[in-house]
Write a structure and sequence with these properties.
alpha/beta; Alpha/beta knot; Trp Operon Repressor, Chain A; 2 domains; two-stranded antiparallel ribbon; 9 helices
């Protein structure tokens, strides 16, 4: 899989995406991740990427020219041209496990990180395939959101996680939150691990975990059960 990120703040993405499983996924050639500074596609000496909005209003709007130039150049380097163009935006579809799974099946992602008051709407109308939000709140810039989304997608690629079953057992993968997990010691400060987990009865353990997953979901995220 190939992922290109276009941002005004490359270091925000490089930090979290250069550690742990994301780092190993790149070293093992499972994903090719490239992080670009959008200013490299400007044509003026000051590398201007934003301007005031038509019609008035606060803040600045990202200009269309460097975004179109960057996407078109990056797309031209992909042999089959099968690129999914994504804009990180609080106005987009909310990222969930199913969307992350769908994106993990793509060949090439180009991710545009919004900033300021957003991007010129012609980018959305004529270039972007999908707007994505990571939640109902606003961040200072889309690079933070892009790092979150890339992590959610890349960890689903075969070979990234240490155990392939890990992704299917995750919270949200089956519509429920994950059941509680415990490890050694079996007794800590007087708090014991549930006896069922020490029983060795795998059928009963599976049943307990299913019940606990539903209970946890009902307590923390009842909206998931409603769906």
């Amino acid at each position: 899989m190939k992922i290109d990120i276009l941002t005004l703040f490359p270091e925000i993405c490089r930090g979290p995406l250069g550690e742990s499983m994301m780092k190993r996924a790149q070293e093992n050639k499972i994903v090719e991740l490239r992080i670009h500074n959008l200013r490299d596609w400007t044509s003026d000496k000051h590398h201007v990427v934003d301007d005031t909005p038509f019609g008035g209003g606060q803040g600045m709007v990202m200009k269309p020219e460097p975004i179109f130039a960057a996407v078109e150049e990056l797309r031209s380097k992909i042999e089959n041209r099968k690129s999914k163009i994504i804009l990180m935006s609080p106005a987009g579809r909310k990222l969930d496990q199913q969307l992350a799974t769908d994106l993990s099946r793509e060949w090439h992602l180009i991710i545009i990180c919004g900033h300021y008051e957003g991007v010129d709407h012609r980018v959305i109308e004529h270039l972007v395939d999908l707007e994505i939000s990571i939640g109902d709140y606003v961040l200072t810039n889309g690079a933070i959101a892009a790092a979150v989304m890339v992590d959610a997608v890349v960890r689903l690629l075969p070979g990234v996680l240490g155990h392939e079953q890990s992704a299917t057992d995750d919270s949200f993968s089956r519509g429920l939150l994950e059941a509680p997990q415990y490890t050694r010691p079996a007794k800590f400060r007087g708090w014991k691990v549930p006896d069922i987990l020490l029983s060795g009865n795998h059928a009963e353990i599976a049943k307990w975990r299913e019940e606990q997953a539903e209970k946890r979901t009902r307590t923390n995220r009842p909206d998931l059960l409603d769906r």
